[in-house]
Design a protein that fits this description.
The complex is a heterodimer. Chain A has helices at about 125-135, 150-160, 165-180, 195-205, 215-230, 270-285, 360-375, 380-385, and strands spanning about 5, 15-20, 30, 35-40, 45-50, 55, 65-70, 75-80, 185-195, 235, 240, 250, 255, 260, 265, 300-305, 325-340, 340-355. Chain A is an alpha+beta fold. Chain A is rod-shaped and about 140 Å long. Chain B folds into 3 domains: about 10-305, Rossmann fold (3-Layer(aba) Sandwich); about 340-520, Thiamin diphosphate (ThDP)-binding fold, Pyr/PP domains (Rossmann fold, 3-Layer(aba) Sandwich), CATH 3.40.50.970; about 530-660, Rossmann fold. Helix content of chain B is about 40%, strand content about 15%. In chain B, strand 7 (about 205-210), helix 9 (about 215-230) and strand 8 (about 235-240) form a beta-alpha-beta unit. The radius of gyration of chain B is 28 Å and the shape is elongated. The chains are: A alpha+beta, B alpha/beta. The interface of A and B includes residues 14, 107, 124 and 152 of A.
Chain lengths: ~400, ~650
């Protein structure tokens, strides 16, 4: 049986080498221990010792000196006496025995079995992104393994939200209906002289500082009125009235995605200037979709203005679980009777919707009365906790 | 120097030194009872003649390494009683700044290179100090003091043999006090004498009366002179007895009797010298009483000062684990590059550094003339000679421990251990000594040692030539662990490793040695703890190490065609580990897979996953996955071997699965 001569592995990692050349000629008699050929591996060229005996047969298609050869490639044969060379030179021997496909699996033990979840599984990143985009991740459809809601699902939801039928819209719808179902809303309407309020704002403009919007002014005045009428600042919870610890006033903001109501904290305690800065920031970020959920929660009263759209009066809907909401119409210069004279004054209509479960009509009317007086003579309230436009603040 | 030639002052100096040790130990025994000594307290009472007789010949450039009973050696070498006492009291003024206590005394300023709670390493370290002396030609001698308990330990055998074959200037002093803690030497030694073992290693040995300071001084003088003049090492066996318990507060009469102890007390070495001095009229009773009074007040003052010293600050409890980081210049932008194999790139780096730094030497099997099993030192023997390319016997614990001692004394050893599996025999030296000494010495001793060798599975190397082990080393403070994946990184990281003062495990995956990349021709450094972003992507972060980086790159190509964009990160070093780069990537992709050939449990992937879920929780869009080598010894047969390592197919599938999670 002809003994094949193949390319040996010279080092640990050798996969191929350079066949330098034969040290014996075709037909030579080879003894065990003879150096047969020279092979260059990774480290050096080595003379390869023959470990069998026989007559060397070098096939015509054997590798030529200088050729790169794979480990296991056939170089020639040793023939025993009387033996003729194999007819067809067999292909190079495989480098390693063919292994069955073995696949190392990632370490992933089965998930721990739990009782069915009340809400769908979601990734931490999906929840973070939901907060950033101000969408409700629970509304997303999970595309992950086992239905997990992933970042892309939340982004898809937010994307869809820019067109009709988005999650914010659904949320608003739910909340409006819930409010209408749960509360006993009554709306009181009154028209108030806003001349001094307009003058106050004009002074702010002249002063050069950040100019408060009429909503800002109303928020500040409402906070002062709520301090005197805490019942309007309460909420309905578990079938009873619960007073609120602070005064936190939501401002209704119209955004592309729908109505958002970011909340101004400590509205009674901060100065008008601070309030102006805060509300501007909240409104900007509400429109850019960058409010956190926290900034949208915890309000105790809401101010909503449609004056910019030429609306005089409307019936705002209570933002649950608050007690009341104030709607502000446009400010108009109109002729009014003052001391039996016709005078030109600035007038505004205020609409207060309150929850009759929490408070009765008379206390609500008294609140509106207080607010009316504050609007008619706003300067002392708005100047408190200055820096004030007139420079008389406490500093 | 014979005993008769000693002058009056030298004799009195011996008396003073022994007395200083005795009185200091008596003070410490009292303080231990009073609770001033917080931990163990191993006194040297009864053995004073040995430290004093030997150290009489040493100066601060000579390096002493000792064992857990080292107070006497420290004092004889020049540590002040106040520094020793303060150390046992746990004070910032202690010789180890309160980091060591009784068993870990360091004062490199006087050549007290350390005592150890582990029996044996001091022998190897003293041999290492001898190697430094031989290499740097500074005339210093390395001295090891150890008990009879150390002589049945492999470090003794390996250390003495290495010192002998290399004719190192070293002295091995066995203090045979007859008990290894409580186990009698007569029980644990087949050969009842230690001194006679010297013949096994081809070095002179002498058995001495360990309580005769003059005899010890004379014999040590001869041995040290021989060492300094190139005559090689000596083994001295000093027969003695400790007359106090193994440690203060421990019962003493379960393994020996009160009578045994009492019988030895009259043979007290101090009493013996005193009687000699009086009999030979070297000193008067009055003169000796004066010395005794002077020593007593010195120790009382030391105790008082130590007691008044402040404790070390808690804020400094974790300083000096590593040396100060080096400022690393940027890789030259326009350097000429050429395609180089991994193996050649590291050879270029080490050749360059050896040319620049004469303190670098290489120890290992077949790294001399042969040039290294993996050509790690090819051609260097001819350039730098046998002292700098030193072939070793197969004695990993021995030459690694020796390397540690050499690193502590001014040399920069490179231990080339061929296969990482082999070096497991020396893990105690690496973890207990090499990793800890910078810290224990409060940063006063540096440990610039490079430990390099091959890791990794492939080509049927089977279980004793395939281990990865880097997660294990990364667990311990004090070590740097480098796992380069390509020629460029390997060269830059090796240049850096040979310039920092920390111990570095430089682990080269065997399957990568012939891979090529474009490498700058000159020297450049890649600092530790900076991951490479191999490929940028947006959908999933894959962290891979060593060979797995190459597989993962191919997986990236396949997945790119499927529309999956993979960001591939190679940490390059696992200690320190650049978690920030990984987390920044995860913040982008939300998905993390760690591909590591090393074992999963308690591994690098586990560490990365823990940090990612802690610091990057809100960034995760899917569970963190690991793909590791199977937790099994490495088998031989190709079909079995292939089944235990991640491959292109399994990596690609793991990434697909994670993207679908």
């Amino acid at each position: 049986m002809a003994i094949p001569i193949t390319v040996p592995r010279l080092g640990w990692n050798m996969e191929q080498g350079v066949f330098v050349g034969w040290l014996k000629a075709d037909g030579d008699t080879i003894r065990v221990g003879d150096s047969l050929f020279t092979l260059e591996g990774e480290k050096a060229a080595e003379d390869v010792e023959c470990l069998d005996a026989g007559a060397l047969h070098i096939p015509a298609n054997a590798p030529q000196p200088g050729e790169t050869v794979l480990v296991g490639a056939l170089l020639g044969y040793l023939l025993q006496p009387g033996e003729s060379p194999p007819k067809a030179d067999s292909p190079p021997m495989p480098v390693a025995a063919a292994a069955e496909p073995a696949v190392v699996k990632a370490i992933a033990s089965p998930a721990i079995e739990t009782t069915p979840r009340e809400r769908p599984a979601s990734s931490p990143r999906a929840r973070r992104v939901a907060e950033e985009l101000n969408v409700d991740w629970k509304q997303a459809k999970g595309s992950g393994h086992s239905g997990r809601i992933r970042e892309k699902d939340v982004r898809a939801l937010a994307e869809a939200g820019t067109s009709f039928g988005n999650a914010t819209r659904r949320l608003i719808a739910e909340r409006m209906v819930a409010s209408q179902k749960a509360t006993a809303p009554v709306t009181l309407v009154t028209t108030v002289d806003a001349t001094e309020l307009v003058q106050f704002r004009d002074r702010c403009k002249a002063n050069g500082s950040a100019v408060p919007s009429y909503t800002d002014l109303l928020v500040k005045l409402c906070a002062a009125a709520l301090e005197r009428h805490p019942a309007l600042n309460a909420r309905w919870e578990n079938d009873r009235v619960v007073p609120s610890a602070g005064i936190r006033i939501g401002i209704a903001v119209d955004t592309d995605g729908g109505l958002l109501v970011p909340v101004i904290r400590d509205a009674a305690k901060i100065s008008l200037a601070e309030l102006t800065v805060q509300s501007r920031d909240l409104i900007e970020r509400a429109r850019a979709g960058k409010l956190s959920g926290k900034e949208l929660r915890g309000g105790t009263f809401t101010v909503s203005s449609l004056g910019g759209f030429g609306i005089d009066a409307f019936t705002p809907i209570i933002n649950l679980p608050e007690c009341a909401v104030l709607g502000m119409g446009r400010i108009r210069r109109v002729p009014v009777v003052v001391d039996d004279q016709i005078a030109i004054r600035d007038q505004v209509t205020l609409s207060l919707t309150f929850d009759h479960r929490i408070v009765d009509g008379a206390p609500a009317a008294r609140f509106l009365q207080t607010l009316t007086k504050l609007v008619e003579a706003p300067t002392p309230t708005l100047d408190s906790l200055a820096p004030s436009p007139s420079g008389r603040g406490l500093g | 120097m014979s005993r008769s030639s000693l002058d009056h002052e030298s004799l009195l100096q011996l008396y003073r030194s022994m007395l200083r040790i005795r009185l200091c130990e008596e003070q410490l025994a009292k303080s231990h009872q009073r609770g001033l000594v917080h931990g163990a307290c191993h006194t040297y009472v009864g053995q004073e003649a040995i430290a004093v007789g030997v150290c009489a010949h040493l100066d601060k450039n000579d390096a002493v390494f000792s064992t857990h009973r080292g107070h006497g050696h420290a004092l004889a070498k020049g540590v002040t009683p106040e520094e020793l006492i303060a150390e046992l009291y746990g004070r910032a003024t202690g010789c180890s700044r309160g980091r060591g206590g009784s068993m870990h005394l360091f004062s490199p300023e006087v050549g007290m290179m350390g005592t150890s709670g582990i029996v044996g390493p001091c022998i190897l370290q003293a041999a290492g100090a001898g190697y430094s002396s031989k290499l740097l030609k500074n005339g210093a001698v390395g001295v090891a003091f150890f008990g009879d308990g150390a002589v049945n330990n492999g470090a003794f055998h390996e250390g003495l043999n290495l010192a002998s074959i290399w004719k190192l200037p070293a002295l091995f002093v066995c203090e045979n006090n007859q008990f290894a803690t409580e186990v009698p030497f007569s029980y644990s030694a087949g050969n009842p004498t230690v001194a006679s073992r010297a013949a096994s290693y081809g070095m002179p040995g002498a058995e001495l009366d360990g309580n005769d300071v003059l005899a010890i001084r004379a014999a040590a003088g001869e041995a040290i002179a021989r060492a300094r003049s190139g005559g090689g090492p000596t083994l001295l066996e000093c027969k003695t007895y400790r007359t106090r318990p193994h440690a203060e507060g421990m019962g003493d009469f379960t393994y020996r009797t009160r009578e045994d102890v009492e019988a030895w007390k009259p043979r007290c070495p101090i009493k013996r010298l005193r009687e000699h001095l009086l009999a030979e009229k070297v000193a008067s009773e009055k003169e000796l009483a004066g010395i005794e009074e002077q020593m007593q007040s010195e120790i009382l003052a030391a105790h008082a000062a130590a007691e008044k010293s402040a404790p070390p600050k808690a804020s400094e409890a974790a300083t000096h684990v590593y040396s100060e980081p080096r400022q690393v210049p940027a890789v030259p932008a326009n350097a000429a590059t050429r395609e180089t194999t991994y193996m050649q790139a590291t050879l270029d780096a080490i050749a360059y550094e050896m040319e620049k730094n004469p303190a670098i030497f290489v120890l290992g099997e077949g790294i001399g003339k042969r040039g290294g099993n993996f050509r790690t030192t090819f051609g260097l023997y001819d350039r730098f000679g046998p002292d700098r390319l030193c072939d070793t016997p197969i004695a990993e614990r021995g030459f690694v421990g020796l390397g540690g001692g050499a690193a502590m004394t001014g040399a920069r050893p490179v231990i080339d251990f061929m296969f990482a599996d082999f070096v497991l025999d020396s893990v105690g030296e690496i973890i207990n000594q090499i990793a800890k000494i910078q810290y224990m010495s409060d940063g006063r001793i540096k440990m610039p040692i490079l430990l390099r060798g091959c890791i990794g599975i492939g080509h049927s190397a089977a279980t004793h030539h395939s281990g990865n082990y880097y997660p294990m080393y990364a667990h311990f403070p004090g070590l740097r662990v480098v796992v380069p994946s390509n020629a460029y990184d390997a060269k830059g990281l090796l240049h850096h490793a040979l310039r920092v003062d920390d111990p570095v495990l430089f682990l080269e995956h065997r399957e990568l040695l012939s891979t090529k990349s474009m490498v700058p021709e000159g020297d450049y450094e890649i600092p530790f703890g900076q991951a490479a972003i191999v490929r940028e992507g947006t959908d999933v972060t894959v962290v891979a190490l060593a060979l797995m980086v190459h597989h993962a790159q191919k997986a990236c190509d396949i997945l790119a065609k499927e529309g999956v964009s993979v960001e591939l990160i190679d940490p390059r070093t696992v200690a320190p580990l650049d978690v920030d780069t990984i987390l920044k990537s995860v913040a982008k992709t939300g998905r993390l897979l760690i591909v590591d050939e090393a074992f999963g449990p308690y591994g690098i992937g586990a560490e990365i996953a823990a940090q990612a879920s802690d610091r990057g929780f809100d960034d995760l869009d899917a569970p963190i996955r690991r793909l590791n080598g199977v937790h099994t010894p490495t088998p031989y047969s190709p079909s079995l071997e292939a089944a235990v390592v991640p491959n292109l197919e399994s990596i690609t599938q793991a990434i697909r699965d994670l993207v679908a999670e």
